[in-house]
Each structure stands twice: as C-alpha cells, then as structure tokens.
Amino acid sequence: AGKSPAAAPPQAPLAPAAGLDEESLASAPAAVNRPPLLRRRAIIFPSYVTVTQPQVVSQLSLELEQQLPLQLLPPAVIPPREDSWQTNDLETLGKQLRRWLRQSPGLPAAQFILAVTTRKGTSRPCYRVTFFDAQTAAPVGSFSFCRQGRPRERFVPANPQPLVHLVMTSPWWCTVRPGPTEKTVYLTAGLKSGLAAGNRLQLRRPATRVIDPVKKIPLGFAFGAPLAEAVVVDFFGLDGAVANLDRPLARLPAGCLAILAPPAPLNLAAPSTAPGTSPTPAGMAPVPAPPAGTPPPAPGGGQTNNHL
Q1: pLDDT at site 265
Q2: Are the CB atoms for 200 and 261 separated by under 8 Å?
Q3: Which of 60, 195, 256, 297 could form a disulfide with 176 if both were Cys (CB 3.0 to 4.6 A apart)?
Q4: pTM recorded for the entire structure
Q5: Beta bridge pairs of residue 208
Q6: Which residues in 157-188 are b (16+ Cβ under 10 Å) and which e?
Q7: Residue 133's closest CA among 94, 188, 165, 187?
Q8: Among 23-37, 45-59, 220-234, 248-262, which stretch is predicted with the lowest mean pLDDT?
Q9: From the CB of residue 30, how many other CB atoms can be counted at a distance below 10 Å?
C-alpha cells in the first residue's frame, strides 16, 4: 500500500503501413485493370537449317518458349519450298518471306516470323536468329549463338530482356471459330497462350492490309470493327478456349479475330453534395456554399481592389 503502480514498459512505435503510400494508391486501379500476360506466337521460316538440322531447330524452339513469352507454331504453317534446303542467306530469306506475306489471304497466325541461318567463316557451327515482324516482314531483332559441343549447352541467351520487351510490346491476337451456339465461340488460344477463365477479349471483323500509297509497301494490318465482347469460360486441347459472347451472333464472318479488350472504366463514385455545400474533389471536406445574394469574387481571386 502507498506504492505507485509500476510504469508500463514503453511500447515500440507502430511500424508504418506498408504499401499505403500515395504512389501505391495511385497505381492500384492500374494493377486491378492490368491485362493478362499472353504469349505471342512465332513461326520459323523454312531454310537450310530447318531442313538439314531439325535437332537444332527443335532445341531452339524449346528454349525460346522457356526464355521468352513466346509460343512456336508447328512448321507446317509455312510449307517449305523446293529450294528451302539450299537457302541460307538472310537477304534471300527476307525476299521469300515478303513474297509469302503478299500471297497470304489475311493476317498471319503469328506475331513474328523467325529466320535461322548459319554464320560463315567460323571454326565451329554458329547461328543467327532474326525476328521479322509478321505484319510487314521487317527485321526487328536478332541474336547469335555457337555450338560448343558441350552437354546441356544453351542456344538462347540467359535473361534476354531486350527480346522479352520486343515480344511483349507487340499486339496480340488469335483467330476465332464459330461455337455450338450463337453466343459461344472457339478461340485458337488457351492455357498455353496464358489465357485464364474470366479474361475479357474483343471480337473484331477480319483485319485489312494497309499499304503505303506512295512506296507501295505493306505497313501492317488494321483490325476490323468490333463485333462483341467475349469472356473465357473453358479450355480444350493443347491451346484452345471457349468464350461466351455478350450478344448473339447469328453468323460469324470468316477470318474474325480476338484481341485484348480495352480496360474496363474505373467505377469512381461521384462525390456527394450535402445541402448547403458546393461539390469538391474526393477526399476533401465540402466547402460551405456562400449565402444567397453574395457577389462573386473578383477575377484572379483575393479581395477586390477599389483603388483605381
């Protein structure tokens, strides 16, 4: 009795709330509406290497899919020419590729076409992989590798960030086929491409070729008008998906494409205005409205200067 109670031990200061800074809050809506990371597609153009060294092409394809957000399509997409086994020159392959693109009826199934050639004047087998834009047949990137004859040697460079950026900044699309009902379609992209249930896509009419009116060279393809919005609901096969449409389509035009749907608009509620207050931005206290009959403030704000 008579003794004061022992003082409580000092408490450690509260740790700051992680992830609640202004920058994180400002970027939160963007993270919610972030589009899915979908694999782009590539085709290896027939050449001397693809015909005479299929084991090199097979390992290269596997490594490209492992190191890049890329999916290699079967070689049958572009049948080899009679002289493909003799073609090892990049310039010649570029001409053949542009000719093939001009003869194609529509937008290719892939975003990139790859040309694999061997490098001359080296003591060991060396190769060059050139990326061509599948819409224009223009070279957009490349890398080289040499076979050392060692076990488990790698062809694709480790952590190829420039190539990753090249692939991910290209537009994505896939072809669409009619489904069992007027509100269902089949997509030629599925789990392997990176789609997930609930992903939103937009169906477009067939793409049209855009030609430079002066130089008469291809500039790319323009997607057709929107037809409907699609939501992925199921998957089938190695890389296929089923999607439901937001409106029935009695007839799906041949050559229709699916692209990433634009992000949904942010659902920001309008700030409420209480009686006797004026509207203010969200997060600020309402400002009382001026009494009736009060003259407006002078231009420029502040008090009126009566001294002329």
Answers
A1: 60
A2: yes
A3: 256
A4: 0.72
A5: 222
A6: eeebeebeebbeebebbbbbeebeeeebbbbb
A7: 94
A8: 23-37
A9: 10
Residue type (1 letter), 26: A
CA separation for the pair 245, 232 (Å, rounded) = 9
- 61-115 pLDDT, tens digit per residue, is 999 999 999 999 988 888 888 888 888 999 999 999 999 998 888 899 999 999 9
| DSSP string computed for 130-187 | EEEETTT--EEEEEEEE----TT--SSPSS-HHHHHHHHTS--EEEEEE-SSTTEEEE
CA 12: distance to chain centroid? Answer: 46
Q: What is the distance between the alpha carbons of residues 65 and 192, in angstroms, rounded to a whole number?
A: 10
- Tokens linked to 119: 């490098």
Rg for the chain (alpha carbons), in Å?
A: 30
Buried b (16+ CB within 10 A) or exposed e, 123-145: eeeebebbbbbbbbbbeebeeeb
Burial bucket for residue 195 (CB in 10 Å: 0-12, 13-18, 19+): buried
Res. 182 pLDDT band, cuts 50 70 90:
very high
